[in-house]
# Entry
Amino acid sequence: MSPTSRPALRPVESVVVPDAEHGRVLVLRDTQGITDAHAMIPPTLVPIVARFTGELTCAAIAKAASKELGEDVPVAAVVSLAAQLDKALFLASDTFERAREKVEHDFRAATVRPPSHAGGAYHADATELRAYVERSCFARARARQPKPAEPRVPRPHLVGLIAPHIDPWRGAVGYGHAYTALADSLSDDADTFILFGTSHAPMKEPFALCRKSFDTPLGAMEADLEAIDALAATARFDPYADELNHKREHSLEFQAVFLRHVLGTRRARIVPILAGLGRHQARGTNPASDPTATAFLESIRELVASRPGRVVLVAGADLAHVGPRFGDARPYGVAERDALAKADHASLDRALSRDAADFWSDVARDLDTRRVCGLAPIYSLLQTLPGAASSPSSITSRQPREASLLHYEQTVDPNEGSIVSHAAVAFYA
# Structure
């Protein structure tokens, strides 16, 4: 790095978190898994890092930051900060590209995806993990379920599930509601689980497949290579262009953990799919108008139809992200939380009616403020449920099918009040 270098921050996740020394700091995290490092940027350095766009030289950044801060920012300090971020692999540079190529090569060559969040977001020890799922997730969810006045009539078999992808520590009860429903209503024939997850890293293509088994502390969920290869063969885009995003993505990893727990030693395979649809989210357009995306979803519908009674679709999807951590000026008050719950339930009502287009339009309307990160996976699930069709009129002409909102929750950060909302929804045959 030199005064004439033009540092450019690469696409990474940025969140604002409390800090004992600085009050609040900006944290940069790599969701692709090229580096495990975090960069903590104190407030005084944010005006500098915010200008790492590749347009300005370090000398120009120092001059502009000095004017904003009202004090001299040495060029050498900007050069040093850029060099540190480059070394930590947070800049778009040759240093990052060399590291990315090696990581991507190693990941593509592997046949198994390791449980990258074990020991952090959930127990790495199998015994401790089983006990946590049973006591903190399943038992707490069952305790909150209403006791039927009469013997419960068995539901039809579950064919689709919306589950949280917040970490299992905070989302314990939500996961409990989702996966006890799956355990209670799973068809004996079900052996294929198509998993739709949010990609928290940017994607070039609308969807990303992965041909790897997902390992968990409880055992691996084997990949259904036949189904994955069939989907890849018909895709009108490169379905592996964003495969590296699977490496650190938690939205599918957490589903694999809970599935393995519910299934025990039962043989079953997964089809892991990250749903991005980022171009449509950015532009506010509906994916139904995109022949590339709709053709891929049609291939999934055909896969579901070819295995009657054997397929369960799962979307690992959270809802809103609001508060200081996500860029809002302050935490939500009671009235704002009530309004958020109303907006979330309005979206969930559209999901319960299996109207994918209406669900997309409703969430996209306030995506910049509610920041629903589960939009793409839930939309994809609704479009591919058994009996779903590409046009709403085709869906409504069929017999109505049952769906249940099992749980809704706003998880509030105890330190600074930010909220992640999530829900569990079950769809039955």
